[in-house]
Design goal:
With 309 residues, the protein is of the alpha/beta class. The chain has three domains: 80 residues; 95 residues, 2-Layer Sandwich (VC0802-like); 111 residues, Alpha-Beta Plaits, CATH 3.30.70.2510. The strands form two sheets. Strands 2-1-3-4 form a four-stranded mixed beta sheet. A four-stranded antiparallel beta sheet has the order 6-7-5-8, with helices on one face. Helix 4 packs across helix 5 and helix 9 runs antiparallel to helix 10. The longest helix has 22 residues. The structure holds zinc ion (2 copies). The site of one zinc ion (ZN) has 8 residues, from helix 2. One zinc ion binds next to helix 2.
Length: 309
């Protein structure tokens, strides 16, 4: 089947928006958006259907009415009415695949831009989750009409949001190994950011043998994070781990930390703390050392601390 025959066959059975129409042929010719591709297909299909109607080709009037009803194509409507057909009533049904979700992409991307403003990053990647019924509908249409050059709705969301981010936030670009991964569900409005973890490694001298190194798990949430523990999952206290972790989190943001240490003899430890999903990457390490040391005073002294990510 030719492209126009395929597009005509799909549109005579399904109500789609121009973006979804374009995406069904997304693998054909790069350099244009699915909306542009959908518009180009619709324009060409309209011309072809006009010719078929004038030629008196069987079934052409039915498809012409469908297109006019769905997309409000005025020349088709005029042609049909001019040939004695009753006027076409415009149907206002949302697209069977995206349910109109693709129309809200700009607003969604602008919200992501605002939420991202607290994060320090240069490169990003966008991933999209859509409800299973949307993917099922898309797959059904693709396989029913044997459309081999289509693109998935998930990749359209990811790419279009990425393009808006690059356009709106100067200096940020897409990378397959990004500083931050953005995961979005356009249908629930859920957006999550996964930044690379921040590593703090160093040594500490123990001044007081009885001082606690490890923090205890928060007894209220058992480590999940709650109001009580400031979402750290650890019980508030003056242990080495809690003092360092909470200072680090207050400077860099983040969702949780992991802590490990090894003894280097009687009075020294070597530690490693990783901060999960931090907002900042470059930290004033001197401030962190000064702050932590003033709280740890007489129990521990931090030295030789390094940051990496
Ligand atoms: Zn659509
Ligand atoms: Zn808690």
């Amino acid at each position: 089947m030719s492209l126009l025959e395929e597009a005509g066959a799909v549109l005579s059975e399904h109500a789609l928006c121009k973006r979804c129409l374009g995406r069904l042929f997304g693998g054909l010719s790069g350099g244009m958006s699915n909306l542009e591709r959908g518009e180009a297909i619709l324009t060409t299909l309209t011309l072809s259907v006009c010719k078929d109607v004038l030629d008196g080709k069987e079934g052409s009037t039915k498809l012409a009415r469908k297109l006019a009803a769905q997309f409000g194509v005025a020349p088709l409507e005029d042609l049909l009415v001019g040939r004695g057909q009753r006027p076409v009533r415009r149907i206002r049904r949302s697209c069977e695949i995206c349910k109109g979700g693709l129309e809200d992409i700009e607003a969604l991307a602008q919200r992501i831009v605002e939420d991202l403003s607290g994060y320090e990053f240069r490169t990003f990647q966008v991933g999209t989750i859509v409800p299973a019924e949307i993917e099922r509908k898309e797959d059904k249409i693709r396989s029913r009409f044997g459309l081999r050059y289509s693109e998935s709705i998930r990749s359209e969301f990811s790419r279009e949001v990425g393009k808006i981010l690059e356009r709106t936030v100067p200096g940020k670009r897409y990378s397959p190994r990004p500083d931050i991964r953005i995961e979005l569900n356009p249908y629930s409005g859920d957006v999550r950011f996964f930044s690379k973890k921040l590593l703090v490694e160093g040594e500490a001298k123990i001044l007081d043998d009885g001082a606690a190194v490890f923090a205890k798990v928060c007894p209220v949430c058992r480590g999940k994070g709650c109001e009580e523990c400031g979402h750290t999952g650890k019980e508030k206290g003056d242990s080495f781990e809690f003092v360092l972790g909470s200072k680090l989190m207050s400077l860099a943001g983040g969702k949780r930390w992991r802590f490990g240490m090894k003894r280097l003899g009687e009075d020294r430890i070597r530690f490693r703390m990783s901060l999960i999903r931090p907002e900042k990457k470059s930290l004033p390490i001197e401030d962190l050392l000064k702050d932590a040391n003033s709280v740890l005073e007489k129990r521990f002294v931090l030295a030789d601390v390094k940051l990496s990510h």
